[in-house]
Structure of Diguanylate cyclase (GGDEF) domain-containing protein:
Amino acid sequence: RAKADGRNTWRAFSPEMDAAHLERQMLEIELRHALARGEIALAYQPIVDIETGAVTAVEALCRWTHPRLGPISPARFIPLAEETGLIAALGEYVLDAACRDAASWETPVRVAVNVSAMQFARGDLHASVVAALSRTGLPADRLELEITESALMDGPAVLDLLHGLRRLGVRLAMDDFGTGYSSLSYLERFPFDKLKIDGSFVKKITRPETDAIVRAIVGLGDRLGMTITAEGVETEEQLRLVRDVGCGEAQGFLLGRPGPADVIAQRLRRDRSKAA
Ligand code: C2E
Ligand code: MG
Ligand code: MG
Ligand code: MG
């Protein structure tokens, strides 16, 4: 047997099976179990109205804490989940958990859920959303779906899906705007309520060229009736600058880091009693 398996055994140590590849395979196996073991949780980050300071929405962000490896970034495991098809189960889980948490908050803020390109392409997103809303009792207008521009393959199926979701009363946000390869024409073609300007622009906003680009995006989004949110706001100066160029909302470490559901619920309660 050892001889018969010899080739395969040696293959496992060949140069192309490098450390990164092995690590990826290991992570894939672990990810298959992560959901069942309850290792995946949601963190929530506030999105704030720049004028009033009120929290208008919170974004649900996936957190995977592996018992041995510790926290693993979604930037690593979401792409892996997409490649392996695990994103379907993960996406359902996130949608359900986010709607359930949001339904339990006393303040009627919206919850924003990230939808991956693959969930989007599978064709059952509409049914998943309907199911999650009915299971959790969350009103449709309290759910916002964040879709990156790279997920938007142009075509009638995509447009139908987006219009169908909007007919439910769900809001649509275009995420990470400016980082994909799509064009400004996407803004008028697809029925988005909100545009989230990627944090990479906010980082460079003191540069005149970046300022000009962001102003152009904001101008266009405004004309099309969209809310504009600046992502990745970390400093007071950035907050002032994104407000000056016309962004209505901001999100970032300056305004609140992602945290567990009970922490955001507490902040929402505090904001409400302050306003009352
Ligand atoms: P995103 O949707 O653009 O989410 C914003 C990311 O920026 C989050 O990273 C958040 O923690 C981070 N962030 C927020 N404020 C700041 C800031 O002031 N400075 C900096 N440097 N970063 C900030 P996170 O949680 O690591 O998520 C990374 C990406 O993974 C997300 O980007 C999203 O595309 C994806 N992701 C996260 N959760 C899910 C999920 O449940 N489903 C899907 N499909 N994708 C998810
Ligand atoms: Mg997002
Ligand atoms: Mg984003
Ligand atoms: Mg981003």
The two ends are 76 Å apart (CA to CA). Confidence is low (pLDDT under 50) at residues 1-6.
